[in-house]
């Protein structure tokens, strides 16, 4: 959730101040936290919306939009 991002930023700032981690590692950790906060919820909403459009049912070999075979 979005509450994790400030925690990651604070922990990486402390790590940088104490010279436990380098700037590259700190940037990678913050970037990974940003991806998890921004991208993963959007993907989940898109997948949920797709399932709701089908009534929750999947028919193998048929697309959700047209009901026709691939």
UniProtKB/TrEMBL annotation:
The keyword Transmembrane applies. The chain crosses the membrane at residues 26-48. The keyword Transmembrane helix applies. Keywords: Membrane, Transmembrane, Transmembrane helix. It comes from the Bacteria. This is Cation:proton antiporter.
